[in-house]
From TrEMBL:
<dbReference type="Pfam" id="PF00172">
    <property type="entry name" value="Zn_clus"/>
</dbReference>
<feature type="domain" description="Zn(2)-C6 fungal-type">
    <location>
        <begin position="11"/>
        <end position="41"/>
    </location>
</feature>
<keyword id="KW-0479">Metal-binding</keyword>
<feature type="region of interest" description="Disordered">
    <location>
        <begin position="69"/>
        <end position="119"/>
    </location>
</feature>
<dbReference type="GO" id="GO:0000981">
    <property type="term" value="F:DNA-binding transcription factor activity, RNA polymerase II-specific"/>
</dbReference>
<feature type="compositionally biased region" description="Polar residues">
    <location>
        <begin position="69"/>
        <end position="88"/>
    </location>
</feature>
<feature type="coiled-coil region">
    <location>
        <begin position="436"/>
        <end position="463"/>
    </location>
</feature>
<keyword id="KW-0539">Nucleus</keyword>
<dbReference type="InterPro" id="IPR001138">
    <property type="entry name" value="Zn2Cys6_DnaBD"/>
</dbReference>
<dbReference type="Pfam" id="PF04082">
    <property type="entry name" value="Fungal_trans"/>
</dbReference>
<dbReference type="InterPro" id="IPR050613">
    <property type="entry name" value="Sec_Metabolite_Reg"/>
</dbReference>
<dbReference type="GO" id="GO:0003677">
    <property type="term" value="F:DNA binding"/>
</dbReference>
<dbReference type="InterPro" id="IPR007219">
    <property type="entry name" value="XnlR_reg_dom"/>
</dbReference>
<dbReference type="InterPro" id="IPR036864">
    <property type="entry name" value="Zn2-C6_fun-type_DNA-bd_sf"/>
</dbReference>
<dbReference type="GO" id="GO:0006351">
    <property type="term" value="P:DNA-templated transcription"/>
</dbReference>
<dbReference type="GO" id="GO:0005634">
    <property type="term" value="C:nucleus"/>
</dbReference>
<protein>
    <recommendedName>
        <fullName>Zn(2)-C6 fungal-type domain-containing protein</fullName>
    </recommendedName>
</protein>
């Protein structure tokens, strides 16, 4: 400061309070004289020198550019495809080791268990790249600097409605209110009770005590609960309606099951679209998508179902569900719920991949989420920091623990298909003996784990879900074990199995059998909806087409018993107004006609089953054609039968449509079953 310069005078206190001009050179000032008050000179507030916001912003931007360059250089130097060939997953560059069947869980361990949960305006995101964590923090600081200098609602980082969710969930009825689609209050309570009794024991992705409070509020005023909770309730009610029979839906809801289900699907879709779920996702959104896509599985074809399931996988990974909550320092409640949700995602992704024709789920193994514990919902308290300990004895988690161990088995079994050959089945059977042994070891491990679960956590007196679980376990293990037997060791080798195509027929037959017992148990326990939901028309069409080419034999008799079982429980197959069901009916009638004529040639008279007679009447046919006279040429008869078989195969293609490609290639080698059906054996109920 220049010493010759006079200090700047300050306005008096009165003038400062009134915010009027003051003449500090005269004391008292004119305003104080006029007001007849003492003129007191005000004190000046010294302001510290601050950097210009633009300067700090530029420094932040420069820091971001530096971090981005470091990230780019690090990526190109370590993972450049021009300088380094990719290493096989799960191997070490210096000392590669084969995948051990004894320790399959090591394949689930990530390369790095690090990571950080980043909170961005209330939306939690997971990042395991420290460079990107730093970049995110710098960008967040830049946003705060920019928004501090901008008026409200004018920020360049403002949250305008995003069109991202319109890609999948555009609002089909923009002028329609969610209020018009919600169930009636009395239906809300009934559907919630159905969900808790039939769906929740099988798909435990929600915490019943927490959601029940939302149900109570929604029954009074549906709009009083948050939009994300509305979406979840729509998905929950859709699953409840899915578990009802047609008669139950008419009795409880006063509407057809299909119409009410479609109404709830539209409500879920509108709620998710309004929520902009791709930008506002959390646990509730993930629960909604899981239940919503589960209820839609029979609406899309198998390939679209698996593709759409990838959306759930990516959202879960973005929220860090592939990392165990204990590692991330989350509360015991959130940790346990995330485990349940993640393992349900793994199970559904495995199932959808296998049904789509893939040999495994292709889910990356860079996750370490532990398996959920054997606890009831009542043992979990949101916000509690008290650790959770598993119970000994039966709980609500009995069936789900079965399911999660099955998912683990399917992910471990992926190692069976890893080979240097593009087609690992193009080898001699002797070369596949080690593979066969590993198959058997995996099945034994699955059986041991399920037996241990059954002894510790399953009790037939603990509820219907435990009875259902006990009925599934022996069938699951027995069929899995039978399907690991190589073709040449099959009992039918040399009599009914002569080549790969014959073995494939038995493989599919094994996968489809024993549904009678499962149907009966599921009806008694209230879970028949779960079995019917996983019924696959393409498998039935393939079997019937093969039965047309195989009119006689033990395997053929087993196949017709299975077809009769399916038609006795799947009433919708008699609805010939549906084109796929009508084509399937024609295929069945044609296959039975071939079987009946071949038996007539041998002097055997077959009684037409009731389900075939119903199909014949519905199609307007008169049953089998008259048997050729004794003077007819035997060669001509064989030619006609072969022509019928060819027509039946063409009909099978019509029934399957584009999904025919989902069936496995019948040209795999003479080893045990092909990989596509190795996992698809669980198709009837998984």
């Amino acid at each position: 400061m220049n010493p010759s310069r006079a200090p700047r005078l300050s306005s008096c206190v009165l003038c400062k309070q009134r915010k009027i001009k003051c003449d500090p050179t005269t004391r008292p000032c004119a305003q104080c004289i006029k007001a007849q008050v003492e003129c007191i000179e005000g004190t000046r507030i010294t302001t510290r020198t601050r950097r210009r916001p633009q300067q700090e912003l530029l420094e932040r931007l420069a820091r971001c550019e530096e971090l981005l360059k470091q990230q780019q250089q690090g990526t190109s130097s370590t993972n450049s495809p021009m300088t380094q060939s990719p290493q096989p997953r799960g191997t070490d560059e210096s000392a590669p080791e084969p995948v051990s069947v004894e320790e399959p869980q090591t394949r689930l361990k990530p390369k790095s268990a690090g990571g950080k949960m980043v909170n961005d305006k209330g939306k939690v995101q997971f990042m395991d790249s420290q460079a990107w964590v730093n970049i995110h923090e710098e960008i967040h600081a830049i946003k705060e600097l920019v928004e501090a200098d901008e008026p409200d609602n004018s920020s360049a980082f403002g949250s305008e409605p995003s069109a991202n969710s319109d890609v999948l969930f555009s609002d089909p009825f923009p002028n329609r209110s969610i209020e018009d689609l919600r169930p009636e209050p009395i239906h809300i309570f009934k559907l919630w009770q159905v969900f808790v009794a039939r769906v929740n024991p099988i798909v435990k992705v929600v915490h019943v005590p927490t959601v029940q409070s939302q149900v109570m509020a929604a029954s009074t005023d549906f709009n009083s609960i948050p939009l994300r909770s509305q979406a979840l309730l729509f998905a929950i009610f859709a699953m409840a309606v899915l578990s009802l029979t047609k008669d139950e839906a008419l009795e409880i809801l006063g509407s057809s099951r299909q119409d009410y289900l479609r109404r709830l699907h539209v409500g879920t879709k509108i709620a998710l679209a309004k929520l902009d779920f791709l930008n506002n996702y959390d646990m509730v959104v993930l629960q909604t998508l899981l239940l919503y896509f589960f209820s839609l599985e029979n609406t899309y074809n198998s390939h679209a179902t698996w593709i759409l399931g990838g959306l759930i996988v990516r959202l879960a990974q973005k929220m860090g569900y592939h990392r165990d909550g204990e590692t991330l320092g989350l509360t015991p409640y959130e940790t346990e719920m995330r485990r349940r949700i993640w393992w349900q995602i793994v199970l559904q992704d495995c199932k959808n991949a296998l049904v789509s024709g893939l040999s495994h789920s292709m889910l990356l193994k860079n996750w370490d989420t532990k398996m959920p514990q054997n606890v009831n919902d009542a043992d979990l308290f949101p916000g509690s920091s008290e650790p959770i300990y598993p119970r000994e004895g039966p709980t609500e988690m009995g069936f789900c623990l079965y399911s999660y161990h099955l998912a683990k088995f399917l992910t471990d079994a992926e190692s069976l298909y890893e080979s240097d050959s593009p087609n690992p089945w193009d080898h001699d059977e002797l070369l596949l003996l080690p593979l066969t042994q590993r198959n058997k070891q995996l099945v034994e491990r699955l059986e041991n784990s399920l037996n241990e679960l059954e002894e510790r956590y399953i009790d037939a007196y603990a509820g219907n879900i435990h009875v259902f679980s006990l009925a599934l376990r022996p069938i699951l293990v027995a069929k899995t074990r039978e399907m690991t037997i190589p073709m040449r060791q099959q009992p039918e080798w040399g009599t009914e199995i002569f080549n790969k195509k014959d073995n494939l027929f038995k493989t599919v037959l094994i996968a489809a059998e024993d549904l009678r017992n499962i149907y009966e148990v599921s009806i008694q326990t209230g879970f028949v909806w779960f079995v019917k939901h996983h019924f696959r028309l393409d498998v039935l069409a393939f079997l019937v087409a093969q039965l047309c080419q195989r009119p006689i034999g033990i395997l053929t008799d087993r196949g017709w018993r299975f077809v009769e079982t399916v038609y006795s429980y799947e009433d919708q197959l008699f609805d010939l107004t549906q084109r796929p069901f009508a084509q399937q009916a024609k295929l069945v009638v044609r296959a039975w006609d071939v079987r009946q004529r071949v038996h007539a040639q041998a002097g055997t008279v077959l009684e037409t089953p009731e389900f075939v007679r119903r199909l014949q009447e519905a199609l307007g046919t008169t049953g089998s054609r008259a048997v050729k006279s004794a003077g007819s040429s035997h060669q001509a008869e064989e030619t006609e039968v072969e022509a019928e078989a060819d027509q039946s195969l063409e009909s099978a293609f019509d029934v399957l449509g584009s999904d025919w490609q989902a069936l496995p290639d019948i040209t795999y080698s003479q080893g045990q079953m092909g990989p596509d059906f190795y996992g698809n054996q669980f198709g009837p109920f998984y």
